[in-house]
Write a structure and sequence with these properties.
Largest sheet of chain A: 9 strands, mixed
Radius of gyration of chain A: 25 Å
Largest interface: A-B, 45 and 44 residues
Oligomer: homodimer
Shape of chain A: elongated
Strand order of the largest sheet of chain A: 1-2-6-5-4-3-7-8-9
Helix content of chain A: 40-55%
């Protein structure tokens, strides 16, 4: 089992009723180790935390030992399962620098990635197709540039970010709000398995912990804290992604946001962030420039160069809608050939047919 | 003729070879009036501007008197034609506060509008259909809120802004880079006539002045200077609209920019402005809030309320693409009826058919 020798003491300390993370950290600072806290005299505990603490310490909830056994069973159940405590040298250094670091992290996968240079990519569960494509492309480009992609395994943007990183052969870390043995949403089970193979699934919740809404903002704080910066691809106003962005800003990390149509509710949250000072980004280079202080090779651009598509019809179309007549004039192609090519491009998802006989390019991921 | 008594002197002063606006203003400050400058002794002129100035002053270009006669003929040719000099009490006060005010303005229309509270709306000549719709809607909403809409009569966003203002029965001012008697592009002739009827066409160039590329940045400086703020709706990088925005910022005016897709070259200029500190705006209220320090009634919103369309199919669709199956489930309508309605909406331009059998709303102006 990849758990430290003092795992049981950490686990029992955290199970002390009424003792939050902050209280536990205060006791650890005073006594030096979880074993010392658990063995402390009632008088010493009363002095530090009042009589209520003295009364509950060492009297964990009745189910504590069963949960501990379950946690140990999970850790022993497979290779690449780890428990990392706040006192562990492997504890993620950026997480340690934040206001509310978890005391215990469960990891399925490669723990060293938690210390890698990383960027969080988060956003709406109800993303638009273009938003999903953008998330994939940013993740792919940033992954190719050597960054680990952190996200929350949620539906929508999160899932697309993990997918993009995997597609690039890059490392990706999923911070989940359930126990490390659960996958939410269930349809991300295969994705979670692929992430665990080359990346890592991280949770501060015990194995078996189900989906609880109040855990998601807590999960978001870990996403923001693990990464050098957080990129919000699409977000509705008052959404969880904006919480992640705020926590990132509060932790002194960079916040990036992708702009979009003023008519798209999924872009409103990003626009609000930009107004509040988040950096508007149009592509991977914008993110890298801030995180690394350099402008990398053009090959790393997340967004395919919009002005020079390889296809002559797409090149003739550009990014504005155009009529068939205009395209005939621009390409000089025979009508039948051009129509056939337009249909191919439409079926391939590279082109949309708009009302009024107009054709418009779609930039896909 | 609606020209001041000293019009001839202003005209001749401006025609002095080699004397720019700045030189003319310096001489006016020294001598008090254009007549006094023209009558100044060579010694006095040499002292102020060197012997070259003394040699040319009072020796205007050979065509000067013919041009003056043409200008007087234009002014006398129709009612509502005016010449306003820097010394005129009717000179636009905001223009006077800028670094390089024109010495002479030709106006066709209602001169009092040049002193009205106004906002400039500018952007790309090669705008997208959505960009044009946005320009119209911002102009309409800001016009309904009582602001005069200033723009440049150019193709694309400028034209749409004037149209939007006219549609709202609001005042609009077109600052042109040609003489006040020319219309560029020619297809905006009818639009220019409508603007002159209820608004104003403004130029610092003599009647007869043709289209000269170097005049457009100069024209942009007047647009920026007349308005309390400049809104850029769509702009390519390195475009004239960005010059207008920069000049507005340098004159201490507000700069607003509309965000858009990261894949649209027409939004890149706006995104660059936002990065440089321009305010990202999603609707009319955002502009009014800054210019007036208030949030006006919701009825003034430029963007139709995206979340509550009157049509039940549009309501079911929302702002994300959806399949026919999804829409059948959401509306509960029979397939034939729903298909017919979708086609109607598509033909009406309210809906686009995307590859993959998806339908997506279009927000039109």
């Amino acid at each position: 089992m990849a758990a430290p020798d003092d795992f049981d003491a950490w686990f029992r300390l955290l199970q002390t009723p009424g003792l939050g993370r902050e209280g536990a950290r205060r006791l650890l600072a005073a006594f030096g180790s979880p074993e010392a806290v658990l063995a402390a005299s009632p008088a010493a505990l009363t002095e530090l935390g009042g009589p209520a603490l003295a009364a509950t310490m060492g009297r964990p909830a009745p189910e504590c030992e069963a949960r501990l056994a379950a946690a140990r069973a999970w850790l022993a159940g497979e290779t690449l399962r780890h428990a990392i405590t706040l006192g562990d040298p492997a504890y993620p250094p950026l997480l340690l620098q934040t206001a509310d670091p978890p005391l215990l992290l469960y990891v399925q996968g490669h723990t060293e990635l938690l210390a890698a240079e990383s960027v969080a990519i988060v956003g709406s569960r109800e993303a638009t197709p273009q938003g999903l494509a953008n998330a994939r492309e940013f993740a792919r480009g940033l992954g190719e540039a050597g960054l680990t992609i952190v996200s929350g395994l949620a539906a929508g943007i999160d899932g697309a970010a993990h997918e993009g990183a995997l597609a690039a052969g890059a490392a990706t870390v999923a911070v989940v709000g359930t126990g490390p043995d659960r996958v939410y949403p269930a349809r991300h089970k295969a994705l979670a398995r692929r992430i665990a193979e080359t990346g890592a699934i991280v949770s501060e919740y015990d194995p078996g912990t189900p989906v609880l809404p109040e855990h998601f903002p807590q999960r978001n704080r870990i996403i923001a804290a693990l990464a050098r910066g957080t990129l919000v691809v699409e977000a509705a106003p008052r959404s969880g992604s904006l919480i992640t962005a705020r926590l990132a800003a509060e932790a002194g990390r960079e916040v990036f946001a992708v702009p979009g149509s003023i008519h798209s509710p999924q872009s409103r949250g990003c626009h609000a962030l930009i107004r509040q000072g988040a950096m508007l980004v149009e592509g991977v280079d914008d993110v890298l420039e801030v995180l690394r202080g350099t402008r990398p090779a053009a090959a790393l651009s997340a967004v395919p160069d919009a002005d020079t598509p390889a296809d002559p019809v797409l090149a003739a179309l550009g990014h504005e809608p155009a009529t068939l007549d205009a395209l005939l004039a621009r390409t000089g192609w025979p009508t039948a050939e051009l129509s056939a090519r337009l249909l191919e491009l439409e079926l391939d998802g590279q082109l949309a047919r708009l009302p009024g006989g107009l054709f418009q390019r779609r930039v896909a991921g």
